[in-house]
Design brief:
By secondary structure, this protein is α/β, with parallel strands linked by helices. It is built from seven helices and seven strands. It is globular, with a radius of gyration of 17 Å. The termini are close together.
Length: 234
């Protein structure tokens, strides 16, 4: 299967679903990670252009740990708008390029504007990419993929409909997140959060709910035309 994980920023996927992605790779599936923004505003002191270079390298290092492809759509923090035609086109091209069977992204009630906009763009374009002449650069998507929402930061107002036991891949998840060194600093300064500790706490909490040491929670989007019977192939 082709699995596409789409996060707004270069560390979002690692925080919320990297343990599951590692299991999917181990199971022989093709995994692609996409971050929509280059993360240009994720530091108080490092200039934007230098930070973009740093965060691109961090993202590539993270993806290399599990041997998956990492793509950036090259947008800017705070500029991801769900009703922007140019943004829709970028997402449609991404879907047509990857041809995913399954897409994982932010939940519609996530905590900040970029995350919520990505959710809407993913919902819209996973359907639109199947229409005639959807992309000028790639074949149209062969199917409307199943759609799963990854956990909100800290799990607020997020009730998983399924869990993945990531006990065996938790060390890999932690190592992937550690590659985003610039954001360990930013989240501490901007949000007063140790993101590694926060990630482990949430993984333990979902593990308690799922009956294992560490877990990740997901909500499957249930709607007509979505292949609702699809389950995580892990």
């Amino acid at each position: 299967m082709n699995i596409l994980a789409i996060g707004a920023h270069p560390d979002d996927i690692e925080i919320s679903c990297a343990g599951t992605l590692a299991k999917l790779v181990q199971a022989g599936h093709n995994v692609v990670i996409c971050h929509v923004s280059d993360g240009d505003k994720g530091h108080y002191e490092v200039p934007a252009e230098e930070l973009i270079r740093i965060r691109k390298q961090e993202a590539q290092q993270s993806g290399a740990i599990i041997g998956c492809k990492v793509i950036s759509l090259g947008m800017r923090d705070g500029k991801i708008l769900a009703d922007n035609e140019e943004n829709r086109t970028r997402f449609i091209d991404l879907i047509c390029l990857v041809q995913p069977d399954m897409v994982i992204t932010h939940a519609p009630n996530d905590y900040m504007p970029d995350h919520v906009a990505v959710n809407r763009l993913v919902f819209d374009t996973t359907f639109l990419a199947t229409l005639p002449e959807a992309s000028k650069h790639h074949p149209i998507a062969s199917k409307v993929p199943s759609l799963f929402y990854m956990d909100n930061l800290s799990g607020i107002d997020f009730q998983p409909t399924m869990y993945v036991d990531i006990t065996d891949t938790f060390p890999t998840k932690a190592e992937m997140l550690k590659q985003h060194e610039s954001q360990l600093v930013w989240l501490k300064e901007h949000d007063n959060v140790d993101v590694l500790d926060l990630m482990e706490t949430l993984s333990k909490f979902r593990g308690v709910q799922a009956g294992c040491k560490y877990a990740e929670g997901f909500i499957q989007h249930m709607a007509w035309t979505r292949p609702n019977a699809v389950r995580f192939p892990v």
